[in-house]
Write a structure and sequence with these properties.
Keywords: Kinase, Transferase. The protein is of the alpha/beta class. It folds into two domains: about 260 residues, ATPase, nucleotide binding domain (Nucleotidyltransferase, domain 5), CATH 3.30.420; about 220 residues, 2-Layer Sandwich (Nucleotidyltransferase, domain 5). About 40% of the residues lie in helices and about 15% in strands. The protein contains 19 helices and 22 strands. The strands form seven sheets. Strands 16-17-15-14-20-21-22 form a seven-stranded mixed β-sheet, sandwiched between helices. A five-stranded mixed β-sheet has the order 3-2-1-6-13. The chain has a two-stranded antiparallel ribbon with strand order 4-5. It is globular and about 70 Å long. The protein starts with a helix and ends with a helix.
């Protein structure tokens, strides 16, 4: 049965919609969903972080200006399309980029400017906590930021009454509730997947570690309460409604779902929260997440452990570099074509060059490239130098040239994934690919399947991203049947009609990628020499 414009209008009037807002690193997006989880209105606001006093940050004024603008554009979109003001919503959810450092005193004042995930100023804290916990604590995690501030002797630490992340802050201001979704909590502090809460033993270890400082607070006094997907996380207060909707149209009392990080909303948006599933996002940077059946045998600095919004353990491999170098080479071919007097359609150029890569030798004919525009922690580089290298015997042709640049875009990622798949024996039934690398049909997908030796699927729509993902979580809280799991809700009610293309790994490609990786690993001293010598 098709849904009419009048049906949507009635859903809006009767509060049968759900709203998701995600604060990404360059855009704040608001997406309103109708009763079948389809977007019916949206609005967005562009913003950029600032580098002030050696810290990447956003001001609180920018947070609220951006939220209000994206909400207002979405509400205006509702009025234009359906002729009614947006006064109530079934449920709301907030998401944002994970990690970072936001601390407040008893009055609710921000003690130091927001330190985002992008800051790499917590190396000592990261190393010390990893040793104490015997658990990898990345630099961007909230606990690393807190401990580094303690190591630095920063005066504000004594006055901390509450520490949270960006979406936790927004949620608190709109509801009065100091809570966080478990997926985001897992990027603040290690989680015990049995208790679905902060790891109790590590909490004790942290309190002991800082006991000599004699602060008036302990860990549990300042960190937000952990909630699972589907749990109620409070309601929009009168003050909160006015803060979000400056026109005053929005009524208070709307329930909110637990605020979640962008990793969690990405898992929801790609329907990859069940065990033995995962997703890989490949664009300017690349990360892969696999939902584990059990804990890893030991800590690896290449692997971050987070959780799904339901509290299942997820291994995450995050790399700084993916398609930037590849795009630069395509840009060079564009310049050449224009110099030859040809008109260039970029979609056609990408498709032609990407497909050409499928004609190359399985191991790229002995060619080697590094796509390091910036440093890459997995291979221990603090800076990057994009490189293309070959021997006189290498088979240097266009197909192999394009193939090696596609392979190397996943080289650092494969280094991390091989730890999971080969050393730890992690099983993957399916990976869901999304992002620019997968835009040309079948190419990035085939290369990715070779890299991980597992099936890779791509959705036709690729969803609406994180804002849609958090709206779906709000919908799950509002509409789930009693004891209905999030896995079932997503599979049966959200993605049931989704068109998915699945590609299995080609044995020859898998063998070729492994051969390339030997060359990639052996050639890392070349990259090191370039970083050291090319200034």
């Amino acid at each position: 049965m098709s849904i009419t414009k009048n049906d949507i209008k009635n859903s809006i009037i009767n509060g049968k919609t759900v709203l998701g807002i995600e604060l990404g690193s360059t855009r704040i997006k608001a997406v309103l969903l109708g009763e079948n989880n389809t977007p019916i209105a949206s609005g967005s606001h562009d913003w950029e972080n600032s580098y002030i006093n050696n810290v990447w940050t956003y001001s609180l004024d920018e947070v609220w200006t951006g939220l209000q603008d994206s909400y207002q554009k979405m509400a205006n979109n509702v009025k234009e399309q359906y002729g009614v003001p947006l006064q109530t919503i079934g449920a709301i959810g907030f998401s944002a980029m994970m990690h970072g450092y936001m601390v407040f005193n008893k009055k609710g004042d921000l003690l130091v400017p927001f330190r985002t995930w992008r800051n790499t100023i917590t190396e000592k804290a990261s190393e010390e906590l990893t040793k104490v916990f015997n658990y990898h604590i990345p630099q961007r995690w909230s606990i690393a930021h807190l401990y580094q501030a303690i190591l630095n002797g920063e005066e504000h630490v004594a006055d901390i009454a509450f520490q949270t992340t960006l979406e936790g802050y927004v949620h608190w201001k709109l509801t009065g509730e100091k809570v966080i979704g478990i997926g985001e909590a897992s990027g603040m502090f290690p989680i015990d997947i049995e208790t679905k809460n902060y790891n109790g033993k590590m909490v004790e270890q942290f309190d002991e570690l800082i006991a000599h400082k004699n602060f008036s607070w302990k860990f549990k006094d300042i960190f937000p309460k952990v909630l699972l997907a589907g749990e109620n996380a409070g309601v929009l207060t009168e003050e909160g409604a006015k803060l979000l909707d400056v026109t005053g149209n929005l009524k208070p009392g709307i329930p909110l779902c637990p605020p979640e990080g962008d990793a969690g909303t990405g898992m929801v948006a790609t329907n990859s929260i069940a065990q033995r599933t995962g997703n890989v996002s490949a664009g300017t940077s690349v990360f892969a997440m696999i939902v584990l059946e059990k804990d890893l045998s030991k800590a690896y600095e290449e692997i971050d452990l987070v959780t799904t919004p339901t509290g299942n353990l997820v291994a995450m491999v995050h790399c700084n570099n993916c398609t930037s170098d590849l795009n630069a080479w395509v840009g060079l071919f564009k310049e050449y074509s224009e110099a030859m007097g040809m008109e260039v359609n970029m979609d056609k150029l990408f498709a032609t060059l990407y497909n050409k890569a499928l004609e190359g030798d399985s191991d790229c004919g002995g060619l080697l490239a590094y796509n390091y525009f910036s440093g890459e922690h997995i291979t221990n580089f603090e800076e990057g130098r994009p490189l293309f290298v070959r021997t006189p015997e290498s088979k240097f042709n266009l197909a192999n040239f394009m193939r090696v640049h596609l392979f190397t875009s996943l080289g650092a990622l494969k280094t991390g994934l091989d730890i999971l798949l080969k050393e730890e024996g992690v099983k993957v039934d399916e990976m869901l690919g999304h992002g620019g690398l997968f835009k040309t049909k079948g190419v990035g997908q085939k290369i990715m399947a070779a890299a991980i030796n597992a099936p890779v699927s791509v959705m036709e729509t690729a969803g609406e991203g994180g804002a849609w993902g958090i709206a779906v979580l709000a919908g799950y809280m509002l509409n789930k049947a009693e004891s209905e799991t999030l896995d079932d809700y997503l599979s049966q009610k959200v993605f049931a009609g989704e068109v998915v293309t699945k590609m299995y790994p080609d044995a020859n490609d898998v063998k070729g990628f492994d051969e390339f990786m030997k060359r990639y690993t052996n050639g890392l001293p070349i990259e090191r020499a370039a970083v050291d010598k090319l200034k």
